[in-house]
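Researcher: Next entry in the queue.
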Amino acid sequence: MQHLRTSLSGATLRLGLILSALLLSAPLVAGEEAAVSPTDLVEQAAQLSEDPENLRDRGAEIVDLLNQALTRDNKLIEAYFNLALYYHHTGDEAKARENLEKVFQLDPEYPSGRALKGVQMLAKGMSAEARAEFDAALSADPYNPIANNQLAE
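Model: Structure for this entry, 153 residues:
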């Protein structure tokens, strides 16, 4: 009898855990998606962007995640910056500049924005202006990877 009680209580515990997991993952209202924060969407896009193949193969998904984030919070500077960076990496400099302008409207001194602007200037042969952007980025964020990588080259 003791063994049966132990088995039943173990089964009840497992069933309770399964039901809890189902309830926690289920939407509150039928058809409603589980809430995902705009920051989570930016993070998902950033993780996808880490793989260079994804920039080519999953670009629409990356852009969609960032646009969804901006639909929920149109002042999310990281989303605009990541769009600018995506478009820069894919060669669409006009869209990169457009999103970078939105970054600077929200924060003219955004370090990664300044560093990306420096990369764009460097590509145009404006090395002195690019250096000023990299220095500005590093003065606000000494560990900025874009500026540090450009100055190390």
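Model: The two ends are 75 Å apart (CA to CA).
Researcher: Noted, moving on.
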